[in-house]
Design a protein that fits this description.
Helix 1 runs antiparallel to helix 2. By secondary structure, the chain is an alpha+beta fold. The protein starts with a strand and ends in a 10-residue tail after the last strand. Strands 3, 4, 5, 6, 7, 8, 9 and 12 form an 8-stranded mixed sheet that branches. It is about 35% helix and about 20% strand. It contains 9 helices and 12 strands. Strand 8 and strand 9 form a beta hairpin. The N terminus is likely disordered. The longest helix has 21 residues.
């Protein structure tokens, strides 16, 4: 149980160490508060700060006009992911409200997290994130959207690097950066040709995605907290699912459901403007 700044206790499934996690977080009431590149870049700035301060291991990212995607790996550091989410969300919203002389919440009060097995499922997750704005019809290719990890995987930054290429290569079993970049380009092009840009609900409705053994292991580690969650099987993968609360997506290309219990309050720690 965590307590957010409103004082309301909220149940949330924990971020288990040793796993890759796909995280999504929406702007309040699905408003397009990140529609300008300036504000998306500020989100990236604070993401870099989270990496510096807490050692957040970032594998991929995507800032859209009304929500964000983040793929991270939990190395087992103390509350690294929730502390990072609190910093990034809090600072981004605070700066926006101050500049716009706006009051009120910037983000929904919870973010969704899905454990991802580090094999072909991790590749699927990478592509799902890279093709987000292609699904939205905003661009024809991922390289056209600046605030995404696609460009950084293909052209690593010399300064202010966000993606941990070494960790990503290790999780994918790829030995060199050149091989990673070539494989990544190939996966994206094949997905575009195969019209693989359709929305996939598993990234917004599941607690875990992977092979049966992986999903069963996550469920076992969650213990009583996974009671009532079901493992569903489909060709090539399994998912750990739970009760869902439907909502209508304004943009029509992204989440149409968010599950009710693996939504994590981002304001786990009282936000201090001078932190």
């Amino acid at each position: 149980r965590f307590r957010n700044v409103t004082g309301v206790q909220t149940c949330a499934l924990p971020i288990l160490p040793g796993y890759a996690w796909h995280i999504t977080h929406r702007c309040h009431e699905r408003e397009f508060l990140l529609k300008f590149g300036r504000d998306r870049r500020r989100w990236l700035h604070w993401l870099f700060e989270a990496k510096k301060r807490y050692g957040l291991c970032i594998l991929n990212y995507m800032a859209t006009s009304n929500h964000i995607h983040l793929l991270v790996f939990d190395r087992g550091g103390r509350e690294v992911i929730p502390r990072s989410m609190q910093l990034v969300a809090g600072r981004t919203g605070q700066e926006f409200n101050q500049r716009k002389k706006r009051k009120g919440a910037f983000w929904e009060d919870r973010y969704h997290a899905t454990a991802v097995e580090t094999n072909r499922h991790l590749i699927q997750c990478l592509l799902y994130m890279d093709l987000n704005m292609v699904r939205a019809g905003a661009v024809g290719h991922p390289h056209e959207w600046n605030e995404s990890g696609y460009k950084e995987i293909q052209q690593p930054r010399l300064r202010y690097a966000l993606i941990d290429h070494g960790c990503l290569m290790g999780l994918l079993g790829i030995r060199s950066l050149d091989m990673l970049q070539e494989s990544h380009r190939t996966w994206v092009e094949e997905s575009l040709r195969a019209e693989g840009s359709a929305r996939d609900s598993k990234w917004s409705e599941s607690i875990a995605v992977g092979d049966k053994g992986f999903v069963a292991r996550v469920k076992k580690q969650l213990g009583l907290r996974a009671k009532g969650r079901k493992i569903t099987e489909s060709p090539g993968e399994c998912q750990l699912r739970e009760t869902q609360l439907p909502y209508s997506a304004v943009s029509g290309h992204e989440n149409s459901h968010l599950s009710s219990q693996n939504l994590h309050p981002w304001e786990v720690y009282p936000f201090k403007p001078d932190a």
